[in-house]
Amino acid sequence: MVWAPLGPPRTDCLNLLHTPSKDSPNMSLEWLVAWSWSLDGLRDCIATGIQSVRDCDTTAVITVACLLVLFVWYCYHVGREQPRPYVSVNSLMQAADANGLQNGYLYCQSPECVRCTHHEGLNQKLYHNLQEYAKRYSWSGMGRIHKGIREQGRYLNSRPSIQKPEVFFLPDLPTTPYFSRDAQKHDVEVLERNFQTILCEFETLYKAFSNCSLPQGWKMNSTPSGEWFTFYLVNQGVCVPRNCRKCPRTYRLLGSLRTCIGNNVFGNACISVLSPGTVITEHYGPTNIRIRCHLGLKTPNGCELVVGGEPQCWAEGRCLLFDDSFLHAAFHEGSAEDGPRVVFMVDLWHPNVAAAERQALDFIFAPGR
Asked: Measured between alpha carbons, how far is 344 from 361 in angstroms, rounded to an integer?
């Protein structure tokens, strides 16, 4: 590298290096002159830069500065978030056994599970989750949820016997045992258009019953008489990978539903089978924030659903919507020749739960929280 001076050689300054010590005052003066020359050049450079900025459009500079600030804030906000990646069914299967998924359905193994915790500490746990959500996002729109959590014990204990959800009651929601198809019109139409698709996948699954008593993936539920089987694709907000692989088209169909509950413990999707002579005794669902949708796949005579004391019958290819926080029961009083009653069941949001409330409830009741 070759250094080239910006100006003519300053031999007077160089000669000072060989000046006798008695001339040291003159040497100091010459060095100050040299430094002054260097600082003048630096000052000119800074002045040129400032003038260049002044020549720019002030509005453009402010806009760029604001965008930079927003970008830094966004990076900070995203960095604080816990990632919730969307993973494939294959990757879910690898972690299934470690998380208590056996034989295709979920066994709860945690004493801290919100849905399985029925003691006085539940309200504090829910309120803690709500505060954590509000700190991370906002309190806006949380009034009804806050009211429900703070007074949950009073709501559950004072509810009439006809409607008494076991875990969480959201106040000020319209109450009715059954809902019209228009309550969730889009999702009802999607399910009914795909009736044959779901039915074909069920029939393929059901053939396995001829080979063994309870094929893998099916769950037998407790009933006083008869047999009630369920095949879960989503169980308490958790995807069941093995089952989803057996019903790929039905599983993909869930993604096209606008109001399907898939991110909290109150969300389920399954095929439900009642053999002839089965009685499902009266019981309550866990919450009133959802409506349960039954798409009839096979509906022989003698089958009936009773919700809040009002009986209804299923129809093949048609959806039946009801609030399972009401006292409800189901019967199949047909003969063996009639075959089983089969419905595809999926939980949808109550139409009067606002979008902000849905997001908060997904956070508060996230699986495993």
From this structure: 24
**CA–CA separation, 294 vs 302, rounded Å?**
17
CA 183/CA 290 separation, integer angstroms = 12
Alpha helices by DSSP H, listed for the chain, are: 11-15, 24-55, 58-80, 89-96, 121-136, 143-150, 152-158, 185-193, 195-206, 241-246, 248-254, 355-364
The pLDDT tens digits for 22-63 are 444 455 555 555 556 566 666 776 777 666 656 666 777 787
Do 282 and 327 form a contact (C-beta atoms < 8 A)? Answer: yes
Query: Tens of pLDDT along 99-153?
Result: 443 333 333 444 444 445 555 567 788 899 999 999 999 999 999 999 989 887 7
> Which helix (H) or strand (E) covers residue 238, if one does?
strand 238-239
| Rounded CA separation 363/358 (Å) | 9
Residue pair 273/339 in contact (Cβ under 8 Å)? The answer is: no
Domains of the chain and CATH, by start: 165-354 (2.60.120.330)
